[in-house]
Design goal:
The structure is a single chain. By secondary structure, the chain is an all-alpha fold. The chain has one domain. Helix content is 66%, strand content 1%. It has 19 helices and two strands. A hairpin with a 5-residue loop joins strand 1 and strand 2. Helix 4 packs antiparallel against helix 5. The longest helix is centred in the C-terminal third of the chain and has 32 residues. The chain is globular.
Length: 455
């Protein structure tokens, strides 16, 4: 496998050089982030869940080791790197917090954080042209689109498409399903589709990216078959979100779509922005009708709850408890953090708890940050996200490099959607965060070839 992407040679244009870049680690890395979790839907794989899940995080760590040891690779640091270093220093100090259950669990938590952020360092060395980045975005669309299509099929024909392992564990005990299922149009039980994963509702995340990328490629100057396939993936993405009943994913999808349309208009591409907006609105409505046909009135009722009150009240109803824990109990009693390895999958796999030292439940990233490093962690990671977003926007509005600006607009919209999830999910300790920093690093790699300030 070719890990090193060749930079443009002197005297050769960036666009011309891009056509000669073969498939390498960047392409396979994007594919791996879908394929590795998908292994868990195969029968008999649940016994190996931990190593399979770890492999998705070990891969970026391995790439970081290659980048660090390869003296021939030279890239200009991204603006967010200094914030990342500061975050890691803080986490290193938190290893010795008296409430960290064990050194092993704390170290595992630090490793997860670092694995998620490492693409910001090594991705710029692999992605050097807009065409290369566009190819990676197309591969990401195929992966996320396939995930979404499977999610829709899992509702249409669960007997054929629902994972066997998942079906045995959850469907065998209907009483335990609770919020993982809902009632379909004919009274049948519908489990929230996992897509190419083994957790109910997990398809919603990749489906949001399929929606954005699908519509972007559908209005691009691409061959007809590519635009049609992109449109199918976008529609499947929205339908999968509705069928999974993950409301935050439809909100973040709309945020992504609005951001891209606004940036496209800012770039002077008003025609494309209008086509994008019209197509987006049509798909939002059309996919909702399809989802109601498959999922019934429950789909309608679930998403209409977004409009029963003002947005802040709706959010507080859904995540108010977590906000109270974050800025109430934790902020007052543990402003400098509550120790590492006390929440999430790290706590489940590596935690060593006693009656006097319990795990802590965290549903949103803000709570996780408050546990792991207190107010300082929230400030540092938020700063890293803000700096990244500002840098991506600056590249997106540099109209003298149209292809670079177009790629930057897509990355900006996708990453702002991920950033918005900190209020309802924990993206920056999952593969969603890996994708965020990979896209940020890849855009920075392309931008620095043009001598502009990348992400």
């Amino acid at each position: 496998m070719n890990l090193h992407a060749q930079a443009p040679a002197p005297g050769v244009s960036v666009d011309a050089a891009s056509t000669s870049i073969p498939w390498g680690f960047a392409e396979w890395f994007v594919i791996s982030q879908t394929v590795l979790p998908a292994v868990l839907i195969l029968p008999g794989t649940q016994a190996f869940r931990l190593p399979i899940r770890m492999s998705a995080f070990l891969l970026p760590l391995g790439a970081f080791a290659w980048w660090n040891l390869n003296a021939e690779v030279s890239t200009r640091p991204a603006r967010a790197q200094s914030w990342v270093f500061t975050i890691m220093i803080l986490l290193g100090l938190m290893l010795f917090h008296p409430a960290t259950p064990s050194f092993v669990s704390g170290l595992a938590h630090v490793a997860v954080y670092f694995a998620v952020m490492t693409p910001l360092f090594w991705a710029p060395a692999l992605v050097r042209t807009p065409e290369h980045l566009a190819r990676l975005l197309w591969i990401l669309l195929i992966c996320c689109g396939a995930n979404a299509v499977v999610g829709v099929l899992q509702v249409y024909d669960p007997g054929r498409w629902m994972p066997a392992e998942f079906s045995r564990i959850t469907l065998a005990n209907v009483m335990a399903l609770g919020p993982l299922s809902y009632t379909g149009p004919n009274g049948q039980l519908i489990v929230r589709p996992p897509g190419l994963f083994d957790t109910p509702g997990a398809v919603a995340g990749p489906a949001a990216y399929a929606t954005l990328l699908g519509i972007v490629f559908a209005v691009s100057a691409s061959p007809s078959w590519k635009r049609l396939l992109s449109l199918v993936f976008a529609g499947a993405g929205l339908a999968a979100i509705y069928l999974s009943q993950v409301r935050i994913s439809i909100v973040t999808s709309v945020v992504m779509l609005v951001v891209f349309a606004l940036v496209a208009a800012r770039q002077g591409r008003a025609g494309r922005a209008v086509r994008f907006a019209i197509l987006s609105a049509g798909l939002v409505v059309g996919a909702f009708m399809l989802a109601m046909t498959l999922g019934g009135q429950s789909v309608h009722d679930r998403f209409m709850t977004l409009f029963v009150n003002d947005p802040l009240s709706v959010y507080r109803t859904a995540r108010g408890t977590q906000l109270d824990v974050t800025f109430g109990d934790l902020f007052v009693n543990h402003p400098l953090g509550s120790g590492l390895g006390r929440w999430g999958m790290v706590a489940s796999y590596f935690g060593s708890f006693t009656p006097n030292l319990q795990s802590i439940w965290a549903e949103i990233q803000l709570t996780g940050w408050m546990i792991d490093g207190g107010v300082l962690m929230i400030v540092l990671y938020s700063a890293a996200i803000i700096v990244t977003a500002v840098s991506e926007y600056r590249v997106a509005v540099m109209t003298r490099f149209p292809r670079l600006a177009q790629c930057a607009a897509v990355v900006l919209a996708a990453n702002l959607g991920t950033a918005a999830l900190i209020f309802s999910f924990t993206p920056f300790v999952t593969q969603v965060g890996i994708q965020y920093w990979f896209l940020a690093g890849a855009l920075h790699g392309v931008a620095q070839q043009y001598g502009v300030d990348g992400a």
